[in-house]
């Protein structure tokens, strides 16, 4: 058992932090929270000296295996290289205070099992499996001159590391069922064009209504949800109409569509980091002029879209989507959003709202008895200075993941 004493507690929701709190951790859960001393004779005692104790951070949009900005190169380097990158990336995330991540394309059961068995240091790991894409969609990585793809489930071919190409209701159903069988937390579809794909413009809507609804239905039957990659308003509106629960990016959203999303209770995970970090380094890292041009379109609208969603009351989670060597900029999402949101809003996005999106309310993103003991101790007040969480873990005196202390400058 571990007993935290004299803590200032941010619970993931409330601006008023309770002072002088005690928390008892037993195994991997919070057993007791009290404003009085807790009697626990055999516990390891840690005096927080009034520092802020809060839920661990949640990044809802990562790709652990995405080891290069060029998705085809990621494929050609094969699993050992991708896994080595994932180990480095996930360890860095944990050291920055991210105790949970959602891999929203490419993550798989073997990586999740390695994390569960403590073969690697990593946050709690939720994964969507392979992204579902239509032919010519955002995760069909073939160049226009290539004729055949090998992104299906046939074991005799080289499978696209991040996605599977499916067309028609039957193929969509089979792919969704296969990824759920493999332990996927949710299913991700690409509902519009994207920046990195070679043959689809960003404005292009993807998947028919019957295909999307078929995938949504499979997830509903599994008591989970569909998340959709969307840039333009047309794709966002279609996805919401067809039953999608969470929108990724929403880069080109306008005020009217933001209100539409909010009224229907759909979540959004914006990703500012991948836009602005890649704008700075993308050309040097080999991004094509076409992709850089599409990235510029996203950058010109991204912050305005955040403002539209804030004004409408859209519930937003924290996501980064950083690719290749840019993984170490994960904490900068706080910086990119800080001109739009208050520190309290940002803290909620990275904790309690993230837990809602993961369908892990009362377990993650909160501090209460019965919740998982995923906690960080901040040297300072993040409700006043959100930059404390943007310092790559340097301002974190303690990090606990599933009741295990993985960083400790206090004992």
TrEMBL record:
It comes from the Bacteria. Gene3D superfamilies: Metal-dependent hydrolases (3.20.20.140), Urease, subunit C, domain 1 (2.30.40.10). Residues 52-404 form the Amidohydrolase-related domain. This is Amidohydrolase family protein. It comes from Sphingosinicella rhizophila.
């Amino acid at each position: 058992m571990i007993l935290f004493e004299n803590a200032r507690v941010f619970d993931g929701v409330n601006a008023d932090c309770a002072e002088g709190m005690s928390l008892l951790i037993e195994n991997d859960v919070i057993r007791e929270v009290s404003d009085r001393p807790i009697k626990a004779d055999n516990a390891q005692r840690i005096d927080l000296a009034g520092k802020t104790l809060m839920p661990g951070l949640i990044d809802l949009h990562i790709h652990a295996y995405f080891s290069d900005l060029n998705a085809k190169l990621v494929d050609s380097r094969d699993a050992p290289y991708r896994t080595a990158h994932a180990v480095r990336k996930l360890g860095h995330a944990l050291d920055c205070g991210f105790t949970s991540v959602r891999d929203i394309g490419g993550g798989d059961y073997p990586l999740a099992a390695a994390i569960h068995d403590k073969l690697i240091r990593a946050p709690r790991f939720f994964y969507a499996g392979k992204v579902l894409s239509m032919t010519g969609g955002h995760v069909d990585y073939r160049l226009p001159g290539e004729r055949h793809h090998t992104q299906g489930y046939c074991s005799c071919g080289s499978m696209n590391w991040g996605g599977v190409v499916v067309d028609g209701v039957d193929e969509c159903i089979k792919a969704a069922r296969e990824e759920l069988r493999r332990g996927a937390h949710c299913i991700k579809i690409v509902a519009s064009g994207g920046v990195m794909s070679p043959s689809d413009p960003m404005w292009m809507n993807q998947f028919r209504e019957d295909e999307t609804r078929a995938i949504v239905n499979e997830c509903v039957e599994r008591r989970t949800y569909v998340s959709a990659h969307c840039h333009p308003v047309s794709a966002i509106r279609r996805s919401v109409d067809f039953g999608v629960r969470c929108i990724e990016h929403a880069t080109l959203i306008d005020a009217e569509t933001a209100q539409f999303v909010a009224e229907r209770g759909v979540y959004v995970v914006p990703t500012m980091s991948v836009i602005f970090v890649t704008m700075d380094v993308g050309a040097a890292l080999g991004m094509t002029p076409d992709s850089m041009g599409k990235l510029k379109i996203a950058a010109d609208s991204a912050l305005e879209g955040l403002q539209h969603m804030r004004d409408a009351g859209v519930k937003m989670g924290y996501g980064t989507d950083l690719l290749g060597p840019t993984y170490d900029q994960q904490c900068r999402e706080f910086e990119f959003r800080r001109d739009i949101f208050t520190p309290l809003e940002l803290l909620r996005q990275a904790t309690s709202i993230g837990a809602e999106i993961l369908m892990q309310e009362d377990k993650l993103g909160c501090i209460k008895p019965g919740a998982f003991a995923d906690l960080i101790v901040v040297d300072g007040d993040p409700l006043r200075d959100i930059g404390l969480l943007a310092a790559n873990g340097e301002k974190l005196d303690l990090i606990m993941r599933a009741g295990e202390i993985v960083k400790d400058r206090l004992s």
